[in-house]
Amino acid sequence: MALFSFTKTHQSSECAGRTGIFQTPHGAIETPVFMPVGTQATVKSLDPAEVHDIGFGIILSNTYHLYLRPGQEIVRQAGGLHSFMNWPGAILTDSGGFQVFSLGALRKVTDEGVVFRSHIDGSKHLMTPEKSIAIQEDLGADVIMAFDECLAYPSDHQAARAAMERTISWATRCHAAHQRPDQALFGIVQGVVYSDLRRECAQRLTELNFPGYAIGGLSVGEPKPMMYDMLEVTVPELPEDKPRYLMGVGSPDCLWEGVARGVDLFDCVFPTRIARNGTALTSQGRVIIRDARYAADFGPLDPECGCPTCTRFSRAYLRHLFKAGEILALRLTSLHNIYFLYKLMERIRTALRQGRFYEEKKAFWASYYNE
Asked: Structure pTM?
């Protein structure tokens, strides 16, 4: 059996959404799927076993952060990320491109690569496409990403074209540098919010025959309808028989809308980040558990949820933990939030298979957004 394959199992008659099976060396993943983010080889505050027990078969880790600390050599000596963090499922690593370009004045972009200063100690580094691939090969993830140039929104067309051309050039170099057959290298489509650039970038990247394609440079400040417009012009240009990954997107509305436009993979720090600030995703919308009205509320965080948090603890207890500054508050709310998104993706897959996608979407909107 091939190390990697993507099989479409159902195509919706209502929209561009589809279900599928993405086969990796560390298991088969049902799509569409949300991937929790473990930036520094950990989904913040959670034991990998807890994440896996929910049902997640794939998580994401970050090349930039792991390169700086603990360093790719330490991870390589540990036997790769799977052994280092004791994660049994698949892992996707991003290229480090987004983090590098987020450094602003701390980096300088050239055709060779990006010179940047570490946000940790100010040390100087050069990240090239070849180096990004070498780091990711040492990290040993199942899916790795080509090094790309991500621009902020808004950017003018001339700058967007220059970044797109550099992204394609770097993707070509990444493709040539990549050696490990047990890793799938995905190309990344860029083009800011310009339809012509998105189409052209997707078309030219498909000529390199990557085993999967990501859509980057969205959810960086542009209005959501504009992001959806870019998906509508980009996804049709990508191969039907390969997975499509929308990077950095994970709010419930974006998951529904992304799936409707044919996206298979999603990731975002969103559910765990808001959990650490005391916000929970529930069937009735967001709950800010720190609020005083929950001080004597002894019901579960979400009555419709079967996660370990909701089956064992009350809103009153969770609020107490947050007010007392207890670490358990972050853990329990983070566990609940990723469970919520896992179950949401299950619901979406079922709706696609049963031909009830828009019916279920409408029901979700009515409950979650009160619309």
From this structure: 0.97
